Amino acid sequence: MPQSLQIVFHGINRSPAVETAVTEKVEALRRFDNQLGACKVTVSQEGHQTMGAFTIRIDLMASGQELIVNRTNMDVMAALNEAFDTVRRSVKEEAEKRRNH
């Protein structure tokens, strides 16, 4: 688990399913970097009462660098998967650079 994981919901109610998915995805990042720093995931929804798109923002400290990723999709889990896919690639690339130097 990273030093701290904060999950913030903005414009929507808290979702245990989303919280669980975020926790599992952050834990999976440890395969590439076991010294992950603080991570903040913001889940927000535009529009009125389940009518708008979901935006996932991930702020993560990895390899001494701050990674910030935003992804938007009409499906919250699709947005979450897209955001974490991008973060995973970045964390993996940084870990490989460290091993090669």
Automatic annotation (TrEMBL):
Entries under Pfam families matching the protein: Ribosomal_S30AE
Protein known as: Ribosomal subunit interface protein
